[in-house]
């Protein structure tokens, strides 16, 4: 497990699972560790796949990851309006604000204040996005099952 992380808000990412199913994921840092082994070109947004690589594993993963985080830890998903009209999604659980996929922006500083709440009904209206979310969640559950057997 890494001692420090590069994602926004990692230092205070101390939310506990709200869903008993995920009790072995102690906090968002642990989830980041697990997802780092799952994020792939398939889970990347189709329009960004050409730029996806293991070195930039969080590229195009924001909304599906943020809604999975919400499943596990509760809280709300917010979006930062990006050039081109898309929203970059991140999480707020209580006073804890974090963005597991912020590394994709390199040194660019994003503004995590006063952003609109995002809703899965809108994001998942795109069937391909919902399929990527389901795949990410299923792969996480497989990984957790494997870890609990060890």
Can you walk through the features of this model?
This protein has 150 residues and is α+β, with helices and mostly antiparallel strands. It has one domain. The chain is built from four helices and three strands; from the N terminus they run ααβββαα. It has a three-stranded antiparallel beta sheet with strand order 1-2-3, covered by helices on one side. Strand 1 and strand 2 (87-93) form a beta hairpin. The longest helix is centred in the last third of the chain and has 23 residues, at 127-149. The mean pLDDT is 94.
Q: Which SSEs are present, and which pair or pack?
A:
Blueprint: H1 28-35, H2 62-73, E1 76-81, E2 87-93, E3 96-98, H3 120-123, H4 127-149
Antiparallel strand pairs: 1-2, 2-3
Question: Summed up, what is this model?
Answer:
With 150 residues, the chain is of the alpha+beta class. It has helices spanning 28-35, 62-73, 120-123, 127-149; strands spanning 76-81, 87-93, 96-98.
Unreliable segments of 5+ consecutive residues: none
| Estimated share of beta-strand residues | 5-15%
Number of helices: 4
User: Biggest sheet: strands, sense, closure?
Assistant: 3 strands, antiparallel
What is the rounded Rg? 14 Å
Query: Which range best describes the helical content: under 10%, 10-25%, 25-40%, 40-55%, 55-70% or over 70%?
Result: 25-40%
> How many strands in all?
3
Distance between the termini: 17 Å
Biggest sheet, spatial arrangement of strands: 1-2-3
Order of helices and strands: HHEEEHH
Total separate domains? 1
Q: Specify the overall morphology.
A: globular
Structural class: alpha+beta
Averaged pLDDT, please?
94
